[in-house]
Design a protein that fits this description.
The chain is α/β, with parallel strands linked by helices. It contains 5 helices and 5 strands, in the order βαββααβαβα. A 5-stranded parallel sheet has the order 3-2-1-4-5, with helices on both faces. The protein is globular, with a radius of gyration of 17 Å.
Length: about 160
């Protein structure tokens, strides 16, 4: 039986990685036709956690760190630049995963901060889904703030 491969791309940080691993475990336990690859992007600072899974349906691909020389960029913009710089390596890793022809690529599940990877999913002709790693209450709060901006003209940020 051919398996369907999902590519998960979490944001840097143990809380994002752990939440991604947990949802991947739940999905593979519910449907044995799924195979999940979690692509871990290494960043040039801090520690890079090592994750393991006892499931044969989950594997990890760790990308080498990339250097972004952008002294004028700081904070969240710098993190987004680091993610954007990983696009080519993610594309190459997915090409290698799908080159065997044993699995069918089903889609990308992206962390809410990895939206630049939607373009990679589009190149492979598969859908991309955003995984919101925070609580449902925080997601509702974000929707409410956006509603206030769109419908009431209140800019709270």
């Amino acid at each position: 039986m051919e398996k369907t491969e999902l590519i998960f791309i979490p944001f840097y940080g143990i809380s994002h990685l752990a939440a991604t691993l947990e949802i991947a475990k739940m999905m593979t336990l519910r449907d044995h036709r799924l195979s999940i690859t979690i692509i871990i992007m290494k960043f040039p600072f801090g520690s890079n956690p090592t994750l393991t899974s006892d499931s044969d349906s989950i594997r990890f691909v760790t990308l080498p760190p990339v250097e972004v020389i952008s002294p004028e960029t700081a904070g969240p913009a710098f993190m987004l630049e680091l993610i954007k710089a990983q696009t080519r390596q993610v594309r190459d890793a997915v090409s290698e995963i799908t080159s065997s022809g044993c699995t069918r690529l089903g889609g990308f599940v992206l962390d809410m901060f990895c939206v630049h990877m939607i373009d990679v999913a589009d190149k492979f002709g598969v859908p991309s889904y955003i995984f919101f790693t925070s609580t449902a209450a925080f997601l509702g709060f974000n929707f409410h703030v956006q509603f206030l901006l769109d419908n009431e003209g209140l800019d709270l940020i």
